[in-house]
Amino acid sequence: MDTPAEAARMKARSEMMIALKCTVASWKVTQAVAAQRLGVTQPRLNDLLKGRLSKFSMDALFDLATAAGLRPAVTMQVAASGRAAVQRISRARKTAGSGRTVRTKAKGAAALV
Description:
Blueprint: H1 4-27, H2 31-38, H3 42-49, H4 58-67, E1 71-77, E2 86-93, E3 101-103, E4 110-112
Antiparallel strand pairs: 1-2, 1-4, 3-4
Helix pairs in contact: 1-4, 2-3
């Protein structure tokens, strides 16, 4: 990883991937059935379940999360020491939110729920 932005992107994608992996595992179905539910091929699902992060863009992970019935939420935090703001994808939620922005307890952080 060369930059803080790259690290933030990788962390966000890995959190999405973990949420998807847990969701698919909870279905207790074969990879072929799970792949069909998500609208991907079984080899593509296998890449996801094996954690092959480089094979998935953030857009692809958002699409898969939505197909899995998850609702990804994006939160923004102000970085310390004047560094650029980092983007973090919070754990995917199964419940639909109101779509409004609310202030969290952390100073300067907001979340779309």
